[in-house]
User: Fold these one by one.
Assistant:
Number 1:
Amino acid sequence: MSVKNALVNLTRHSYIYTISTFVQRMLGLIMTPVYTVYLARETYGDYSLLYAFMAFMNVVYLYGMDVAFMRFYYSDRFKKEDVYASAFWAVGGGALLLSLLIHGQAPYLSRVIFSDATYEWPVRLAALILFLDTFSNMPYLILRVQERSVAYSVARILRFAVELSLNIWFVVVQKEGFLGILYANALASAINILILLPIQWRYLKGRFNAAAFKEMARFGLPLIPNGLAYLVIEMSDKFLMDRFLDRETLGIYAANYKFGTILLFLVSAFRTAWQPFMMKTAREINARTVFARVMTYFTLMGVVMVVAVSFLLQDILTLKVTDTFSLLGERYWPGIPVIPIILTSYLFYGFYVNFTAGVYILKRTRLMFLFTGAGAVVNIGSNFWLMPAYGMMGAAWATLLSYLVMAVLLWGYNQRIYPIPYEYGRITGLLVILVAFLGVYYIFEPGLLYRLALLVGFAAVLYMGGYLNKTVVGQVQSVLRFKK
C-alpha cells in the first residue's frame, strides 16, 4: 500500500470516528451547562468523584481484553468467532464478580470515595453501570476491528441520543440531580446492549477457546497497570483537590476540565482507528514511513485545535443565552484559564498514542506500565507540590507534565526497538508556534477582537512555514473523495 493510500485510509476512518466521538462526548459538553445550573458546585464535585472511580474500575473490568481481541482477531491460529467468544465470556464473568463485590462493599467504598458513608446507593448504581457498560462496549470492538467506521458511528450516535434524552428527563424534568445522571446512564447502557445484539450474534456462536484466552490474557493483563496508571493521571487531581482544597473548587475545576477534553475528541477518534490500522500496516514494507507521516499530520491537527479552541472557547462559554443562562454557569467561570493547559496535555497524550506503534507490533505491552507509571508518579508529586500553592492551575500543570513525561519516555523506548523516521523539524516548528501563541494568550490576556486577529496571524504563520501547502490540501481532498 502506498503512503498516500495508507494515510487516506487511516484519515478517512479517523474522520468518521471523530464525528462519532464528538457526538458521544457532546453528551458531557451539552449536559455540563445543564449540570452547572441544576447541580450545586458541591454536588457536581460528588458526580466527578464517582465517575472518576468508575473510569478507574472500567480498566479493571476489561483487563486488557479489548486490545487483546483486536490483536488476535487477525491471528491465523484461531477462528475469529472463538477469539471474540473467549474474550466476551471471560470479560462478562469477571464483570459479574466485580459488580457483586462492589455492591457488597458499598458502605466501605462510599467512605473511601466521598469520605462519607451515606453514598451507598450511588456506589451500587455505579456497580450496575459498570456491569452493563462492559457488555455494551464489546460489540463496538467488532465494528472497530472490521473497520466499519460508519456503522460504529451510527451506533454511538444512537447511544448518545438515548442517553441525552434520559439525562434531560431525570435531571431537568424529574429533578433527580446526581442520581438522575446515574439512572440515565444505566438505562442507556441496557438499551444499547439490545440494539447491538445483532452485530455480535454470529460471534457469540463461537466457543470459548482456552488457548486463545491464555494468549489474549498474556497480552492484555500487562495493560491493566498501564491503564490504572493512566487513570491515576486523569483522576488523582480530583481526589487530591477534594482533600487539599474543597469540593466546591473541585466542582469548578471538573466542569472546566470537561471542556478541556475537547482535544480528546481528536485523540480518541485517532486511537480508535490507529490500533487496527497499525496492526495491518505493520506488514507493509513502508510502514515506518507511513507512521512518521501520520505523526506530522496529527501534530498539525492537534496544534490547530489547541490554539483555535483556546482563543474562542472563553467567549462561547460566557455568552449569555438569556439573562440568567450561559453555556457555563457563571459560578464556574473562575476555572476557564485551566482549559488551554488541559488541551495541551491531551496533545501530548496524542503523541504518546502515536509512539505505541513499536510496543504493540513487537508485543512489548508488559513494559507500558513503566512509562505510564512514571507519568502517574510525576502527576501525584506535581499535584502535592503545585496544587496547594497554585490551586486549580497547579493541578492543570501537573496533568500537562505527566503526559509530557509519558510521551518522551515512550518515544525514547520506541525508537530503540522500532525506529521511525519522524519529521522532527516540522514537529518542533509546530510546537514552537503553539508555545508562542499560548504565551500571548496568558501573558497579555487579549480581548476577542485581538484574539481573532491573532488566529489570522496563526494561519499565516502555518502557511509561511509550509504546513498548509498543496500537499496537505490535496491530502484532505483525497480523504473526502476516498471510497473504501
Number 2:
Amino acid sequence: MRRVIALLLVALATLFAGPALAKPAAPLRVLYLDQSVGWKHAPVARPEGGGLASSEIAMKAIGEESRAFTAEVTQDAREITPERLQRVDVLVFYTTGALPLLPEVWAAVQQRVAAGKLGFVGLHSATDTAWSYDGPGETYTQFINGHFAGHPWTQGTPIRIETLDPDLPVVAMWPVGFDYAEEIYQHSDFDPSKVRVLQTLDFAGAPLKRPYAVPVAWARQIGQGRLFFTNLGHTPSTWDDPRFRKQIVEAVNWTGGRTSGRATPDTSRQFLWQLKALLAYEPVAGRDDKAIIGRLMEMDPAWQTATAKRIADLRTVYPQKPDSDRAPFEAAYKAVLAEVQARGGVR
C-alpha cells in the first residue's frame, strides 16, 4: 500500500513540476545594421555629441520589452564577419547605399539564411541598398527582391494600406484596411514569383495614385530560411507606433523560426492588385470594375502573368515631373487598359 501511495505521489509531483521546470526559449540574437552610405534617414542619425540613433534605442527597447530578442547595433558593415554571424539569429537592415560588406560575408549571410540558421528583416530603405557582387548566390537586390525606384508618397502623404493576410503574425497587428501617413517606396527589380505580398497600397479613393500596384510588405522563403521586408519606418513617429513596434517583434520571431506563417508566392493575388490599381487610376462612372476583375481572374495564367508585368512596367514610363513628356506613358497605359477592358467584357 505504501509503495502504491509513494508511486502516486511521485506521479503527481512529476505532473505538476513538469511545466514549472520547462525553460522558456532564450531570446533571439538580433544584429541591427543601420549604416547610411549617402542619404541618411532621421531614425538612423546619431546625435553629434555621441549616443545611439533613435531607431537603435527603439530596437533595443523593443527587444527588452517583448523579451523576444536582444539587439546589438552597428553602423559599420565591416563589423559583420562570418564568425560574428554564427552568434546572430536575425539580421536587421535599415540601410542606404553601397555597403562595405565583403563578398565572403555576403556569401555567408546567404548560406546561413538558406540553411535556416539566420533570418533577415529589411526596414524601409533596406531596398535603397546595393553593392557590386559576383559571388555565389544572389546579389543583394535579388535577395531582398527590389530596389528603390522613387517615392511619390513622401513623408506625411496620406495613404491607404490593405493587409492581405491578416491572420499572419507579421501583419496581424494592422487592420485589414487602414489610413496612414508614411514615405512609401516603389521598386524596380521586383519579381512577383519570389515573394508573398502581405500588405499593399490601396488606391481606391486615395489622393495620390499610380496605375500599378505598390507592395508595402512582403515575405520570402529562401531554402529553410525566411526574409521579411516592410516599406514602413521612414517617419520617426512610425517608430513610436505600437503596431509597428509589434511588427518588428513578430518579424524577428518569424524570420528567427519561432513562429509559423506562409510565404508562398501569391502571383494570382498580385495580378488582382495590379488590375485594381490600373482601374482605380482613372475611375469611369458606370463601369463595373468588380465584374471586369472577376472575369479576368478566370483567364489563362500565362496571360495574367504577362498582363501583370505590362501593368507593373508602367512605372518605368510614368512621368517623373509635371513637365515631363507623357506620350510614352499614355500610349502604354491606354494600350493595356484597352485590352483589360475588352477582355473584361467592356464594349
Number 3:
Amino acid sequence: MTIAGCADDIDDSAAPSAPPTPPSVSASTTTDTDQLHLVNLGDSFSAAAGVQPLVADSPVLCLRSSRNFAHVLAAAEGYRLTDVSCSGADTTDFASLQYDGVPPQLDALTDDADIVTVMIGGNDSDLYSTAIRECADLAARDLSGSPCADTRGAEYVDIVENQTAPALLDALQAVRDKAPDAEILVVGYPWILPPTGGCYPAMPVATGDVTYLRELQSVLNAALQRAAEQTGARFVDMAPASEGHDACAPVGQRWIEPRNGASGAAPVHPNAAGQQAIADAVAAALE
C-alpha cells in the first residue's frame, strides 16, 4: 500500500521527479503465447517496494521488484507475466496516468489475460500512510494509552467505508469489464501489527493504538473482500497466514519490515519472505 501502498509509509507524492520513462507497461518473464497470461496490478505492496533487485525496464518511481509475488508466482507456475504494479498507486491510477511514462494500469489488460492479481486500496485518500504517521506522532504523548484513537476516533474507518470502499468496487468492476473472462484475485493486506502490545520504537505506535490500527486494517481488508465478491473475483485473505509475521516479529520471522530499522524492504512493507508468502497464497487459491 504506500499501507502500503497498504499504504507506503514513504511519501510518494513527495518523490523527486525523474526523467520520463518509455511508456512500456509490461515486464514480461516470457513471451511464449501458449502459457497462461498473468497481469499484476496494484500499489507498493504489490510492487514489493524496497525488495531488490528492481525490474530492469520498469519506471524508477514504481519501485517494482523482480521478486514481488507476481514474479515469484509466474516463475514457479510458468506464467507469462505483465506486471504494472507501482508504488504510490491508488484506485484512480487504474484509469489515469500515475507518473510520466506510467500509463493507467487498466491499459495492461487485454483479451488474452487469463489471471489478474490486484492489491490496492491502502493509498486511497493517503489513508494508511497518514494513519501510521499521525499515530506515530501522537504516540509520544502517552505510550501506554491510545492517543491516536482518542484524537482521531472513527475518522479513518469512516474514510474507508465512505470513500475507499466505493472506489474499490468501481476499480474492480473496471478490471472485470476489461478482462471479463479472466480469473481475478484480489489480495488482502497482511497484518502490519500484532493483535496487542506492539514494539515501540520499531513501530512507533502507543500500546493502546495497536488494536486501533489493526481494526483499521481489518476494515480495509473487509472492504476489499466485499468488492471482490461483488465483482466475481476471488479474495485472497492474507490475515490468517500472516498472524505472527507482522512488523513486530523477529528478523527471519516477520514478513513486514518495521517503520524504524527496516531491512530488505521499504518501511511498513512486505519483505522477500512476505512476497513469497503472498505468492504461495495466490497459488493455493488458483488450485
